[in-house]
Design a protein that fits this description.
By secondary structure, the protein is mainly beta. Strand 3 and strand 4 form a beta hairpin.
Length: about 170
């Protein structure tokens, strides 16, 4: 009986010692894609499509997060002026359930590559469209994809133009 009591006390002390250790958590990015870096007292984090609440660290280490960390138009290659024209794209409806329509607001026919990418970076759908005409509308069937957030990437074959849009599938 004494052995059982002694064994129970040793086991309880061991468990208490294990859980009494000090743990510290470092800031991390919790999302399907992203990263966190810090240096010189400053930190920088980026995610794809993650919602963050407004936060300001009262300790004075300048931690501030607000809204989506990436805007609707995620990236624009500064070389797009090489086309010698001003252009834009309208993707609708967004959110989409079946067909996503893409209207090209361009002045002259241009070749474009269109990709649908999931948040892990996997390219789910890739097409090359030679000679897209001004105001042309291209429809993409997204009905076979599960609910979630996807990226619509539109680029020229030489990659001088690269625009990425966030698409919500429901």
């Amino acid at each position: 009986m004494k052995k059982k009591i002694l064994l129970s006390l040793v086991l309880a002390a061991s468990v208490t010692f294990l859980f009494a250790q000090e743990y510290s958590l470092t800031p991390t990015v919790i999302s399907t894609a992203g990263h966190f870096n810090s240096a010189g007292g400053y930190s920088l984090s980026g995610t794809i499509g993650e919602l963050a609440v407004t936060t300001l660290d009262p300790g004075g280490s300048y931690i501030l997060t607000q809204g989506f960390q990436q805007p609707f138009a995620v990236g624009v290659n500064p070389g797009f002026d090489d086309l010698g024209m001003d252009w834009s794209v309208n993707a609708y409806p967004n959110p989409v359930s079946d067909f996503l329509n893409i209207r090209f607001n361009i002045e002259n026919p241009v070749d474009f590559n269109i990709e649908i990418i999931d948040l892990t970076g996997k390219k789910l759908w890739i097409r090359n469209y030679p000679g897209i005409m001004p105001q042309e509308v291209i429809s993409i069937d997204l009905s076979r994809y599960v609910r979630g957030v996807y990226m619509l990437r539109i680029s020229t074959p030489d990659q001088k133009v690269n625009k990425i849009y966030k698409i919500q599938k429901f």
